[in-house]
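Revision sheet: structure tokens.
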Amino acid sequence: MKRAGYANHFSLGLISGTACLGMLIPPSLLMVVWGILTDISIGHLFLAGIVPGIVLAGLMMLYIAVVSVLRPSVVAHGLAHRQAGVSEEQSLVRRPPPSSRDLWLSGVGLIAIVVGALGGIWAGLFTPTEGAGIGALFALTVGILKGMRRQEIVDAVLTVGRVAVPLMILVFAAQLYSRTLAMSGVGNQIQSLILSAELGLGLTILFMVLIWLILGMFIDSISVMLLTVPIFWPIAQAMGIDPLAFAMIGILTVEAGLLSPPFGLVVFAVKSVVPDREVTTGHIFWGALPFMLLLLVVSVLIYFFPPLANWLPSWM
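Predicted:
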């Protein structure tokens, strides 16, 4: 995008903002964690994220189109090579196109993974854990057909282990945390305090959203959910909000917190991999701000129109 002439704040804000979109489109790790913490069907959560995900993607595309029309310099193509510091000859270098066999294997493999894993979960043929195993089996099969060998397979398994084990420890600790809250009565006291304030559904949800946004500035999404969902979930149930709509509002808000200044973790993650020292975190925050607002807009839409989240699951 730099070589094509896009402004730094716009392109890096786009990368940061659309990264959060991935947590709404299934399969989503945050939905799996939310389902474990609340005993909601993970398959239903996956379905609940599809329509809000499409709406959010549409709003993002609309924003990009409006910027392209109103501020063409942000997406200009003039002086692209000099801005990127790349010569005309270097810019013309392209990797050789993939073979038709690789394209066919990739396409068929992707469809098999999606249909086999998600389709089986949605159809009730197997659990999310079994669906993950089916997806991993299909992915391994495609990898072997495309040339993976023993050492590469071992490396892939070790990489998965390094990612999965810390997550499983977090989930295990969250279960202990939830049980401790229940047994000590602290969670019940917090819930009673909030309910006794009689703020009403709207102000109570707004209070939760503010807590999620503040925590999202400092810690990662899963940790925010592990800390807050065991307390907020019973309150939402007591106040009668649709469980799937509440889940989508929570996930969207937590993700918005990761883009909000001054400590949005996604922005700092993007900054850490950008080699250009002239790009500051302020540039990325400025570019990511519209995408953070769009996440909150979709949350508001779901609050006022819950069928955005529960329409598809209602067919299952």
